[in-house]
UniProtKB/TrEMBL annotation:
<feature type="transmembrane region" description="Helical">
    <location>
        <begin position="175"/>
        <end position="193"/>
    </location>
</feature>
<feature type="transmembrane region" description="Helical">
    <location>
        <begin position="283"/>
        <end position="301"/>
    </location>
</feature>
<keyword id="KW-0762">Sugar transport</keyword>
<keyword id="KW-0813">Transport</keyword>
<keyword id="KW-0812">Transmembrane</keyword>
<keyword id="KW-1133">Transmembrane helix</keyword>
<keyword id="KW-0997">Cell inner membrane</keyword>
<feature type="transmembrane region" description="Helical">
    <location>
        <begin position="321"/>
        <end position="351"/>
    </location>
</feature>
<feature type="transmembrane region" description="Helical">
    <location>
        <begin position="116"/>
        <end position="136"/>
    </location>
</feature>
<keyword id="KW-0378">Hydrolase</keyword>
<dbReference type="InterPro" id="IPR001851">
    <property type="entry name" value="ABC_transp_permease"/>
</dbReference>
<keyword id="KW-0472">Membrane</keyword>
<feature type="transmembrane region" description="Helical">
    <location>
        <begin position="51"/>
        <end position="70"/>
    </location>
</feature>
<keyword id="KW-1003">Cell membrane</keyword>
<dbReference type="Pfam" id="PF02653">
    <property type="entry name" value="BPD_transp_2"/>
</dbReference>
<feature type="transmembrane region" description="Helical">
    <location>
        <begin position="20"/>
        <end position="39"/>
    </location>
</feature>
<dbReference type="GO" id="GO:0005886">
    <property type="term" value="C:plasma membrane"/>
</dbReference>
Amino acid sequence: MTVVANIGELARRNMRQSGIVVAFVAIVVLFSVLNSNFLSPGNLTNIVLQYSYILILAIGMLIVIVGGHIDLSVGSVVALTGAVAAVLVVRNGYPWWVGVAAAIVVGLLVGAWQGFWVAVVGIPAFIVTLAGMLLFRGLTYQVLDSVSLSPFGGSYYLIANGFQNGLLGGQGYDVFTLLIFAIAVAGYAVSQWRSRQARLRYQQVVEAMWLFVAKIVLVGIIAMWFAWQLANYRGLPNVLIILAVLIIAYTLVTQKSVFGRHVYAIGGNLNAAQLSGVKVRRVNFWIFVNMGFLAGIAGVVYSSRSNGAQPGAGNMFELDAIAACFIGGAAVTGGVGRVTGAMVGGLIMAVMSNGMQLMGIETAVQQVVKGLVLLLAVAFDVYNKRRAGVAR
């Protein structure tokens, strides 16, 4: 017998995920009221360009946190991978793709190094990545000889600063951008329908049909409105294409693959996972290799965006990525969290930072606000766990 839930029941079942979406919408509305330029095409594009590397890091950090670990070194790895790319492309004149490949390889090597100490030697990830934060920052200074390298220019610069515009024409707007977003909305609708049907087959609670349709329509309207803003400005940012591919790929990895299920099993109950035959060491090793891989991509995007490499690049990036995951619904104890939630959490941080910058709020105050938001998000998670425990 299937059960169809109303809005109140769904909100109680999925309070954390529903809450962050409502909070995101409320923050967007607040800043759009306070500053008329907040929702302008130029500013929306700027948000995508400025915070894409944090969202990329948040994808990898989510998997780390779900597995019951933490990674404090990603900011230093972003700096190191960007420095390697700059030395090859700027200083030695290699093609742009050599710099990209080298940065990603360095990220993979860093991930394998840290994965070895965590998975094989058994040192807690907090200690390993804290050491890595210092180690890789020092290596960055060594690689750059303590000076900045710029500019990249050319194709490397366009990775994070270029746009796809005019591929299919359009009178004052870019048809290609609208088409890509329309395909994405259609894909989202099909995915949600299949997920709903699967829950019905297993006699799980689902929303009423009218509510399901309303949700799809609302998401479609918001997505196409955002696409229209981009299409009327400069088109589809290259970095948004990179980010979309990563989100889709890692959503499938975490929700559909054996590796993803094992990560959730380890973070949810380590002893049960071991007794179930999960190869914990192997999974933990690849968790950190994957984090290094995504840190390498983020390093390429950030160095491209800034059009150079600096010894101090990536400072505090790890905290922004961690905050995005926790605000987006990841549990402190591991085993809980989704890629989409981390993306919403990252967008909340991005929107708050951008909105406060437009209002001219001091950096010190911005840090205070973001710190309070993170604290409240984790407190809400703890509150929900305690209430669930009392209910049982």
